[in-house]
Amino acid sequence: MCIWSPNEPDFDWLSDLLYKYPDCWIKNEWDEEGGKAGVWVGFVDNNDNKVIKQMDWADLCLEEKNYFFQ
C-alpha cells in the first residue's frame, strides 16, 4: 500500500496502530523527493510494551535518480 504524505510518515499514527493490532508487526519503508529515506518497524511485546525501531538515511533525490538511472 502506498500513502502520500508530506516528508516523513506520521509516526504517531503508526505507533497508535500497534495497540489496535497487537498480534501484528508493522513495517513502513519510506522515501521523499529530496533524498531522505528510512524504515520504521514496530510491534507489541509479551509485556504489552511497544517496541519501535526506526532508521533514516540520505538517499538519492529525485533529480539524482533520473540522472543515474536513465
Order of helices and strands: HEEEH
Number of helices: 2
State the helical fraction: 10-25%
Low-confidence stretches: none
**Main sheet: strands, sense, barrel:** 3 strands, antiparallel
- Helix/sheet category: alpha+beta
Q: Strands across the major sheet, in which order?
A: 1-2-3
| Structural shape | elongated
Instruction: Tell me what portion of residues adopts beta-strand conformation.
Output: 25-35%
First and last CA, distance: 26 Å
How many strands in all?
3
Number of domains: 1
| Rg from alpha-carbon coordinates | 15 Å
Mean pLDDT: 88
Could you characterize what this model shows?
- 24% of the residues lie in helices and 34% in strands.
- It has 70 residues and is an alpha+beta fold.
- It has one domain.
- A hairpin with a 5-residue loop joins strand 2 (36-44) and strand 3.
- The longest helix has 10 residues, at 11-20.
- The radius of gyration is 15 Å and the shape is elongated.
How are the SSEs placed, and which strands pair?
Blueprint: H1 11-20, E1 26-31, E2 36-44, E3 50-58, H2 62-68
Antiparallel strand pairs: 1-2, 2-3
